[in-house]
Amino acid sequence: MPEIVNMKLLFNSLLYSILGVVVFWVSFIIVDKLTPYELWREIVERKNQPLAIVIAAMCLGIAIIVAAAIHG
Residues 35, 30, 72, 8: is their CA dihedral positive or negative? Predict the structure, then answer.
C-alpha cells in the first residue's frame, strides 16, 4: 500500500516552518530593540499608520528572506 503522506517530508516541512517563524520573530525583536521607541505602543496606542506600514514592509521583507533561505 503506497504512503499517502511521506513522514520524512512532513517532518522536514514542520521543522523548517518552525525554524522560519523563530528566525522571523527574533529578527523582529532585534528591529524593535534598535528603534528609539516602542513599536507596539506607537502603532496601537498612538495609531501611527506610517510606522505600521514601514513595519509591515519590514516583516514582509524578512519573511521573503527566511522563505528563500529555507527553500534553498
Answer: negative
Other C-beta atoms closer than 10 Å to the C-beta of 45 total: 9
Residue 25 above 60 pLDDT?
Answer: yes
Q: Which residue has the cell 512532513?
A: 10
Q: Quick one: which of 50, 57, 70, 64 has its CA closest to 31? A: 57
Q: Which three cell numbers stand for residue 5?
A: 503522506
Please report which confidence band the pLDDT of residue 5 belongs to, taking 50, 70 and 90 as the band edges: confident
Q: What angle do CA 26, 55, 20 make, to 5 degrees?
A: 35
Angstrom distance (rounded) from CA 13 to CA 21: 12
Length of the chain: 72
